[in-house]
């Protein structure tokens, strides 16, 4: 039999209808919904008198817009209206909702895996580009627009042209205290913000196999930052161990059967991809972005680039624009840049292991007097688990604010905003202009690096925290 | 959605690559639950200063582009967030055709669901159009039926588009209605999976 990639295997199992000159009609196993990209879709159903075809395959939460403090009353009337609209829509159409007061509430890409809704081999969509996160489980998961949200609600299917596949092969092993976040930033830094366009990325290689599920989610999360609508990792024992015992997964013998099926989805030896790129994990250092897209990143030991070094006039202009927006000078060491804000959170880095590792850096230290630092757990479940371990106390005693779950300062739709002209070391995924607030300057880093930046008030190589005495 | 066959209009050049959807429609405007009315917020942080006054150095605010309906931009247009508010804002502002050397996947697909025609031309062709569009009133004709872009000075470029997307845009079809004609196949599929 012809060896196949995991993408081909999942695709073949989900095609409902095929004809010449058309994309395939693909069945969707799980549709995740949140308050920002769904109201117009539900309204569309209502106008045409349509129903949600499979409420049992649809799950909603509130994350983008929710306040992370004082949640008993949402003071912004427009935000409140959007949340109430989701509540009403879920009631009307029979969709299960983890609303702002629900113990399962959290960032949609954190709670899907937590609740065991995310499983290998599933097709998963959500009106959010970071849906690629769920690919960590060997699911085919991608972001869709609101018209497609409406389409999936009405038909439980989507028209999709079969994507090209790309193998991002990560050789060797990451050095101690170099994280999944550093690896994905280094990949995007090396190959650019559009190398994945039109492809589904599969991450392979020794370094990827060695990652925990939470680290794999960090990698797959940022596939979209490389232009790829989806990124995934073939399931293995790590995947199965994570899922065992979770709500919504089979139990007992049925679980063992499912586990065998999941592992059989892994890409076959000798399967071919449309493209292959390689990177050596052992060369990756802790990364810091300096510019206005995630490809503009540097090792923490590096310096901001010179526009003259650009390969084309367009690139040169982009570097110049980034330097102006970021208030940086060409050639400036990135470690010399003072920061005023630290944000630990987002669907990239807000899980328990992220908070644990950051708290190890913080332990017994104080946040720099010029820095305001925020920790926003990815879900209420993460928050509870962290509190049970005393992680909240470590952060609070150091001077961090400890908040309720949500997207928060990653996109600053709520009150968690970075003021114009100020800098934030952020564990999120996008350093676009104005992302964390109009005029705000974002530097993307790993949780450990953000924690060290909070203490020092500037970027330092966090590895020095683990090798030298306090 | 409105069908689109052939469109002639004034060109607005925005010579930047990697224009992300956070720039096209900043997040503070995503709280609305309507589909209409996003045009006023298009490129908001580029068009307006901190006091919400128009920045006259941003060319879209200049009189010569006030009737523009064709946007020409650099590579990877529409990258980032999946927010369909981006094509809604472009369309509500008046843009019907967007030309770039490449588009982000989700944005490209979102355009086609809203009757916006995204046209991929070569980098050289796009640069040529960006130069030409500096002349006030410069206009182009985008012909979806024949898959060509032309101007009155002899510029001509052809473009590719999938037959499915071409058909959807030419007819202005509601995709859900099309899919629901296959409802029995969806049910059969569901039954086969148990």
UniProtKB/TrEMBL annotation, chain A:
<dbReference type="InterPro" id="IPR036008">
    <property type="entry name" value="Aconitase_4Fe-4S_dom"/>
</dbReference>
<keyword id="KW-0408">Iron</keyword>
<keyword id="KW-0456">Lyase</keyword>
<dbReference type="InterPro" id="IPR001030">
    <property type="entry name" value="Acoase/IPM_deHydtase_lsu_aba"/>
</dbReference>
<dbReference type="GO" id="GO:0003861">
    <property type="term" value="F:3-isopropylmalate dehydratase activity"/>
</dbReference>
<feature type="binding site">
    <location>
        <position position="347"/>
    </location>
    <ligand>
        <name>[4Fe-4S] cluster</name>
    </ligand>
</feature>
<dbReference type="InterPro" id="IPR050067">
    <property type="entry name" value="IPM_dehydratase_rel_enz"/>
</dbReference>
<dbReference type="GO" id="GO:0046872">
    <property type="term" value="F:metal ion binding"/>
</dbReference>
<keyword id="KW-0028">Amino-acid biosynthesis</keyword>
<dbReference type="Pfam" id="PF00330">
    <property type="entry name" value="Aconitase"/>
</dbReference>
<keyword id="KW-0004">4Fe-4S</keyword>
<keyword id="KW-0432">Leucine biosynthesis</keyword>
<dbReference type="GO" id="GO:0009098">
    <property type="term" value="P:L-leucine biosynthetic process"/>
</dbReference>
<comment type="similarity">
    <text>Belongs to the aconitase/IPM isomerase family. LeuC type 1 subfamily.</text>
</comment>
<protein>
    <recommendedName>
        <fullName>3-isopropylmalate dehydratase large subunit</fullName>
        <ecNumber>4.2.1.33</ecNumber>
    </recommendedName>
</protein>
<dbReference type="InterPro" id="IPR018136">
    <property type="entry name" value="Aconitase_4Fe-4S_BS"/>
</dbReference>
<dbReference type="GO" id="GO:0003994">
    <property type="term" value="F:aconitate hydratase activity"/>
</dbReference>
<feature type="binding site">
    <location>
        <position position="410"/>
    </location>
    <ligand>
        <name>[4Fe-4S] cluster</name>
    </ligand>
</feature>
<feature type="domain" description="Aconitase/3-isopropylmalate dehydratase large subunit alpha/beta/alpha">
    <location>
        <begin position="8"/>
        <end position="457"/>
    </location>
</feature>
<keyword id="KW-0411">Iron-sulfur</keyword>
<dbReference type="GO" id="GO:0051539">
    <property type="term" value="F:4 iron, 4 sulfur cluster binding"/>
</dbReference>
<comment type="subunit">
    <text>Heterodimer of LeuC and LeuD.</text>
</comment>
From TrEMBL, chain B:
<feature type="domain" description="Aconitase A/isopropylmalate dehydratase small subunit swivel">
    <location>
        <begin position="1"/>
        <end position="123"/>
    </location>
</feature>
<dbReference type="GO" id="GO:0003861">
    <property type="term" value="F:3-isopropylmalate dehydratase activity"/>
</dbReference>
<comment type="similarity">
    <text>Belongs to the LeuD family. LeuD type 1 subfamily.</text>
</comment>
<keyword id="KW-0456">Lyase</keyword>
<keyword id="KW-0432">Leucine biosynthesis</keyword>
<comment type="pathway">
    <text>Amino-acid biosynthesis; L-leucine biosynthesis; L-leucine from 3-methyl-2-oxobutanoate: step 2/4.</text>
</comment>
<comment type="function">
    <text>Catalyzes the isomerization between 2-isopropylmalate and 3-isopropylmalate, via the formation of 2-isopropylmaleate.</text>
</comment>
<dbReference type="GO" id="GO:0009316">
    <property type="term" value="C:3-isopropylmalate dehydratase complex"/>
</dbReference>
<comment type="subunit">
    <text>Heterodimer of LeuC and LeuD.</text>
</comment>
<dbReference type="InterPro" id="IPR015928">
    <property type="entry name" value="Aconitase/3IPM_dehydase_swvl"/>
</dbReference>
<dbReference type="InterPro" id="IPR004431">
    <property type="entry name" value="3-IsopropMal_deHydase_ssu"/>
</dbReference>
<dbReference type="InterPro" id="IPR000573">
    <property type="entry name" value="AconitaseA/IPMdHydase_ssu_swvl"/>
</dbReference>
<protein>
    <recommendedName>
        <fullName>3-isopropylmalate dehydratase small subunit</fullName>
        <ecNumber>4.2.1.33</ecNumber>
    </recommendedName>
</protein>
<dbReference type="GO" id="GO:0009098">
    <property type="term" value="P:L-leucine biosynthetic process"/>
</dbReference>
<dbReference type="InterPro" id="IPR050075">
    <property type="entry name" value="LeuD"/>
</dbReference>
<keyword id="KW-0100">Branched-chain amino acid biosynthesis</keyword>
<dbReference type="InterPro" id="IPR033940">
    <property type="entry name" value="IPMI_Swivel"/>
</dbReference>
<dbReference type="Pfam" id="PF00694">
    <property type="entry name" value="Aconitase_C"/>
</dbReference>
<keyword id="KW-0028">Amino-acid biosynthesis</keyword>
